[in-house]
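Explain the record.
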Amino acid sequence: MNGAMRFELIVLWLHVLGAIVWVGGLMYQAHVLLPAARRGPAGLFADAARRGRPIAWTAIALVVLTGLYNVTRLGPVERVMESGTGLVLAAKFILVLAAVALAGQRDFAQLPRLARALAAREDPARALGAIAWLDRAVLLLAVVIVYLGLAISRAG
């Protein structure tokens, strides 16, 4: 294996690792921590989500940056467009932007809303409900994004 192939394999591995960390962490929060917060002290969830935020956003940055690099490895633009891969890639790109926007809404609007509600000793149910909805939306988008990524990799 030459150096260029090794580098491309490392970039692909980092891309997959970033996706696993982002989606896996979100899945754990959405399906384990959030239901527990709805039945018990929501402060524990808020603290865990706040502490997990740097890891999640590092993973998101890794996915985006390595994904952009991987796009450059698909070949000439004309061939990518003629094969239909360009359309699939555009759909994937739009869905990634949507997932990142929803994750930003969750982490930088709804989590602070939850913290304010907890600090004021108000009912956190509305903030927790919004977080749950955003988590489900990002997880659904992630399933479609992974499918499209696999379709792109099989087309090449």
User: Anything to note?
Assistant: The helical segments are 3-39, 42-72, 77-82, 85-119, 125-155. The chain has five helices and no strands.
